[in-house]
Structures are given as structure tokens and as C-alpha cells.
Amino acid sequence: MITPHKNYNLKSYNTFGIDVVSKLFYDANSTDNLKEAIRQVKAENIKHLILGGGSNLLFTSNFDGAIIHPTLDDIEVVTSGDDYTDLKAGAGVDWDSFVEHTVSLGLCGIENLSLIPGTVGASPIQNIGAYGVEAKDTIERVDGIYIDTLEPFSLSKEECKFGYRDSIFKNKLKGKVVVTHVTFRLSKNCNLVTHYGNLEAEVEKIGERTVQNVRQAVINIREAKLPDPKELGNAGSFFKNPVVEITLVEELHKKYEQVPFYPINDKFVKLPAGWLIEKSGWKGKRIGNVGVHKNQALVIVNFGNASGQEVVELAHQVRQSVMEMFNVSLEMEVNVV
Question: Residues with catalytic annotation?
Fold first, then answer.
């Protein structure tokens, strides 16, 4: 039997540090406890939300329902071949601790995703990515349970329908499943990805091209550019990098010669949202308790006492400015609750 906490404060369960309360809060440290929590909320017809590390959520009010917080923290070797190892990790494992663990084993594939806040369970949902690497590049399988039936599921990477910051869990299966474990196929023969941004130069500063040094380089860059959520509430990248037709970039180049972009194919390119926001005059700008970070325009920060509604309002103003200046629509990466 699992018993929920009542009127539970969620400030330390969301990286924005929004001070809100949940009517009920379940801490589920096993699949059985997870199922029991779901049974209880369904039996009483209580609104519920599955909450991982809270690194991609923005609460705009108290939650009048039940938060179910999976904390499964097991890690096991599923298979190991000549050039790879499959590691299966529980949804509650801290993401960066997992990356650190894989690097300590000399395994490669997710080192570029170092220092991303959140849990392993969130990695396939959001298809997290950084420095030219995405979670989908290494995810082999995602396991979990269906909320309606409590039956298990196991999806291959193909069945997860991964896209840019996207997956089946944000679309067809949104609100219908809970992820319990993720299996990653990691390489013993490293093909390190260092071409993105200034990562190569940072690795060279540290020393030779090793998986350990790539991880450290990523950490160095992120710590220099991004605020620590423990010190300044934020959810990392607030907006997705917009994907636009290359013809739009050609139009923008007539007015802004230095528009950076990353080709996707012969028709579409990805624009850096941070650059668009900075050029719109928002970098380092503060309005009351919220603002755009001084070192990274892609990050909206809580200076201590912000409400979720204040963050949403600032995001709306930023989006409006970018649309007016560049005719580009920014999509929020953060989920508003």
C-alpha cells in the first residue's frame, strides 16, 4: 500500500522553483507502487500528473490533484557485445548521474548530453539533445505501463517515433503511459561528436579527445553559459530552435547578414532561437521577478519569487518580439501546467 502526502509543496520538484502545492503527492519507488498510485487516483477519479525531475515543467497555479513521482533508480547491464553495451536505467535515475556513470565505464554516446537537468524517464519523452547529439541516437528501447490498463509496454526506438524534441510520448501516447525504464545502446569504440559550436576548441583546451574530456568540455561550456537551477530557477532552453524554410533565411539575409542557421535538408534549416531572442533585444532584460538570462537568451529565469503566470507573460512578449522582427514563430519547449 502506498500512501500519498497531502498538500505537498512542489518548489523543490520543479527547476523553475515555482512555489506551488499539490493536493496529493505519491512517491513511487517501484513499478508495483507506481501501479498502486495510479489505481488509487483512477478509483477516486482524481486529476493526476506524472512528474519526473520537473526540469521541463512550468506550474502556473497550485495543482488540484495528485502528483505521481516515479523514483525507480536501478541500473543494469542488459547485454554486452564486442563494441557495445546495453544499459537499462530506471526512470527516476538522475540524468547527469547516469551520463557520469556511463563515461566512468568508458562507454560513449551520451557524453554530449552532460549536465542536462532531469531524469532518465524524461529523456525519450522530450528526445533531449545538445551539441549535435540527441537521446534517440542511443535509445534502444523504452519500457513502461499504460495508465488505463496498467499493462506493460515495451517500444523499440523505431516505435518511439522520435523527432526534434519530440516522440510518440508527446503525441499519440501523451497522458496515456508512464515510462519506467529506458535501455541505451552505448559504444565501446568511441565516435566522438565535437563539431558543434565551440565544443572542439574546449576539448582541445583540456587535452586529448577522450569521452571523459568531451563530457568535461560540455560541462565547462554549460556552466559558463547556463544558470544553475539551484541558484537561479530555470528550465534550461525555454524555446525550441525553429525549423524554417530556407527561402525565409534567404529573405532574412537581405536585412541581417549574420543570421546563423543549421541545414536540415535542401528545403529546411534550423535557426538558433537564442540568437533571434538576443537580436530582438531581450538578452539580460528583467521584468519584475523574471527575466532573460544575461549569458544565454534561450533561458528564462526566476529571480526568486516569480509566479508561473509571470514567466508565461514574459515568454509571450519574447515570442511577439521575435515574430515582429523576423517573422519566425517560437515554440515553447517547456510544458505549462
Answer: 165, 237, 333
